[in-house]
Amino acid sequence: MRYLMFVKADERSEAGGMPTEQELTEMTAFNEQLVKAGVMLDGDGLAPSSEGARVTFDENNTPTVTDGPFTEAKELVAGYWVIDVSSRDEAIEWARRAPLGPGGQIEIRRVFTEDDFGDALTPEVKEAEARMREAEARRREELTR
What we know:
There is one protein chain. The protein has helices at 11-14, 21-36, 88-97, 123-143, and strands spanning 2-8, 40-45, 53-57, 63-67, 77-84, 106-110. It is of the alpha+beta class. It folds into two domains: 2-111, 2-Layer Sandwich (Alpha-Beta Plaits), CATH 3.30.70.1060; 119-145. A four-stranded antiparallel sheet has the order 2-5-1-6, covered by helices on one side. Strands 3-4 form a two-stranded antiparallel ribbon. Strand 3 and strand 4 (63-67) form a beta hairpin. It starts with a strand and ends with a helix. InterPro entries: Dimeric_a/b-barrel, YCII. This is YCII-related domain-containing protein.
């Protein structure tokens, strides 16, 4: 099962504060543990919301763009991991090991699988999804060459 573990932002991350050398060393060691265990699929830190934007759709499906920063840091994300583990409990155990320090917070959410969508996932939609994922994998591979 894939899980998204995201690190909640705080005042420091929203102010653009970068990790210290010690924090980077600890986070790198944690990421290496995830990789060595074969569970890490992706992960990165995120720039503060002042560099971001929100696109909100009204009742007529009209998009409105709001530039950051956004006021509620506790509702924002500062970084993430995508992991592939056998259970929610295993995802929690990995999150418990993260070197975030006092006040740090990680939210864990399961990533949907095809089975979750039932009959709404028609063969046509399934084929289109597979084509898109293959194209994205090729693009990523080309970027790493």
